[in-house]
Amino acid sequence: MNKVVVGLSGGVDSSVAAATLHHQGYQVIGLTLWLMKGKGQCCSEGMVDAAQLCEELKIPHHIVDSRDVFQEHIIDYLVNGYEVGITPLPCSQCNRAVKFAPMLTYAQQELGTDKIATGHYARIQYDDNSDRYQLLKAVDANKDQSYFLYDLTQELLAASVFPLGNQTKEETRRIAAEFGLATAEKPESQDLCLVEAHGSMQTFLDRYIKQKEGEIVDMAGNVLGKHTGIHHYTIGQRRGLGIAAPEPLYVVKLDAVMNRVVVGDRHAGGRLECTAAKMNWVSIAEPTTPIHAEVKIRYRSASVPAQIIPLGNARIKIMFESHQFGITPGQAAVLYHDDMVLGGGIIELAE
Asked: pLDDT digit of tens for each residue in the chain (351 aa)?
């Protein structure tokens, strides 16, 4: 019998992933990572719901204390980024360093299997020609999570199973109801567990970063208002600036050295190019010459065509065909070819 370790957060997606594999005849073992204290789908409440699911399915349930790993790779990473004026994307970092890699290590060393599964909406296929595992978008475009999985390695893709990749969220709910799972009607969790646990990103950050008053200025340096910390702002932000102007203004730059928030009109926030570092080429080998790809600069943004120029040292230049608004340092630039994730990296501060 095939043995698989399923990551359980206590939500409906991971519950259905486990129940589906169990129904298909796999020997399923539930594994929940304890990431932080407090309430939230992935923590105390989630662990209780995950344990209840394992009782329903009559499968073993393991809990691994991952709080120190989460503190180092996510909380410290976020705080350090916001302090220097970038807007980090923790989810891709969390998937590789906190979830998938530790899950696989635990599965191999403690549970005797090389297979792990999660409730992510994405697909994996093996390509004989390139001898590589390829990461693909989910069938459900509204739930596709391939953007957050670009940093997975070939080893992790080879070991991973995504049972929900070929179905919609509505089908997941229906399957949960058919299996009689307690999580069938459980509400959707926030995209970011820290927001769910602390109420807002600002509340979370204010626990770690001291508020420091500074100026909100326009592109010419004219002072328009005051702020209480650049970590309260992100590139492209329009609402909550607390300043009056005859036309809409957006955050176009966060100056950590001068402790300034720079605002401008929408045109000022548009750029034709950017660079990305820490590139991970997930589905293809690292290119040595320029290629064309569709690029997403935010999870909810549309893919747009661009030329990709390799710079060496896991860096690329991205040259867009049209101006892109709100390119944000710290967020991920993920490259696609149709449904395939070519790779991705972290957008750098503009020079």
From this structure: 699 999 999 999 999 999 999 999 999 999 999 988 654 444 567 889 999 999 999 999 999 999 999 999 999 999 999 999 999 998 888 999 999 999 999 999 999 999 999 999 999 999 999 999 999 999 999 999 999 999 999 999 999 999 999 999 999 999 999 999 988 888 877 556 776 666 778 888 998 999 999 999 999 999 999 999 999 999 999 988 989 888 899 999 999 999 999 999 999 999 999 999 999 999 999 999 999 999 999 998 999 999 999 999 999 999 999 999 999 999 999 999 999 999 999 999 765
- The pTM of this model reads 0.93
DSSP-H helix ranges across 152-246? 154-159, 169-179, 193-198, 201-206
User: In CATH, what class is 269-347?
Assistant: mainly beta
> Which of 42, 43, 54, 193 is an active site residue?
193
Is 54 considered catalytic here? no
Query: What is the amino acid identity at position 36?
Result: M
Would you call 193 a catalytic residue per the annotation?
yes
CATH number of 3-198: 3.40.50.620
Overall fold of domain 211-265: SH3 type barrels. (2.30.30)
Domain boundaries, the chain: 3-198, 211-265, 269-347
Same fold, 3-198 and 269-347: no
Q: Angle, to 10 degrees, between the axis of helix 12-23 and the axis of helix 169-179?
A: 60
Sign of CA dihedral 178, 183, 185, 190: negative
Is 172 within 8 Å of 164 (Cβ atoms)? Answer: yes
How far is it, in rounded angstroms, from Cα 88 to Cα 77? 8
